[in-house]
Design goal:
The chain has a two-stranded antiparallel ribbon with strand order 1-2. The chain is elongated. The chain is mainly alpha-helical. The N and C termini lie far apart (about 60 Å). It has 2 domains: about 15-85, no CATH class; about 85-128, no CATH class. It is built from 4 helices and 2 strands.
């Protein structure tokens, strides 16, 4: 066999990323972006509270309510990017859309609905 007719394929560089590494890198960058976007929005929210006169230092009576708002911001960012968050199920249980008026109504006994979904094994958007 004549070796002059052999096709030489280019050698791939050793530092070339494989597909798994690319997916991992994209996943990491998306997670970082979600965290950064949530942090920016959370800081804007907290700054707005201060701007309208809320005293944040030493005011422990609002801590849980503020945490609820901050976690809701994270949930919103995750929802925008089609990422799961445990608050998605909470929002679905707490609010309903009135199709006739396009109003969104708050369902007062929402925790009952959440408890029922958890007891039936419905894990839609469980955030894990």
């Amino acid at each position: 066999m004549d070796t002059n007719n052999v096709i030489q394929f280019p050698i791939q560089p050793k530092n070339m990323l494989n597909l798994d590494n690319i997916h991992e890198e994209l996943k990491h960058k998306k997670e970082m972006h979600l965290e950064l976007a949530s942090d920016i929005l959370a800081n804007m929210f907290l700054d707005s509270l201060v701007d309208v006169g809320f005293q944040m230092d030493g005011n422990d009576k609002m801590v849980k309510d503020i945490c609820l708002c901050l976690e809701s911001i994270k949930s919103l960012v995750c929802k925008y990017y089609d990422e799961p968050h445990s608050f998605h199920m909470f929002a679905e249980a707490c609010f309903s859309l009135d199709e006739h008026s396009d109003n969104i109504d708050f369902n007062t006994p929402a925790w009952v609905s959440i408890k029922e979904k958890n007891n039936t094994g419905n894990t839609e958007d469980d955030g894990t």
